[in-house]
Amino acid sequence: MRVRRAVLGDAHVDRAEARKTAVDADFQRFITEGAWGSVWARPGLTPRERSMITLALLAALGHDEEVAMHVRATRNTGASLDDIKEALLHVAVYAGVPAANRAFRIVKDVAAEMGETP
């Protein structure tokens, strides 16, 4: 939970925890332990590098809400808009221009919402 909060921020995690019910409690525990406790907590990559990899994968798979969430998380991971741009150029080459185009739109919208100039 410490890593999840460090990356996504307390407000996001608090909202997720407040919405948790018996239906998704096991799922929430699974992602906290698996994604945040096992993968994101590993020493092999920095949070910035993990952030860029995560954004590229989410963009390639078309998971728009998760792309937006992880763009917001870059405030906490140290990934810059230039880093995101580079990751999305890889998405364009390896996963397709439409996936990257959609992700670039999301990044610009979220960056503007965060008060950053895309």
Automatic annotation (TrEMBL):
Enzyme Commission number: 4.1.1.44
Coiled coil: none
TM region positions: none
Record-annotated Carboxymuconolactone decarboxylase-like domain positions: 26-109
MF terms (GO), sorted A to Z: 4-carboxymuconolactone decarboxylase activity; peroxiredoxin activity
Main EC class the enzyme belongs to: lyase
Upper lineage: Bacteria, Pseudomonadati, Pseudomonadota, Alphaproteobacteria, Hyphomicrobiales
Top-level taxon: Bacteria
Species, as recorded: Methyloraptor flagellatus
Gene name of this polypeptide: pcaC
Annotated keywords: Lyase
NCBIfam families xref list: decarb_PcaC
Protein name, per record: 4-carboxymuconolactone decarboxylase
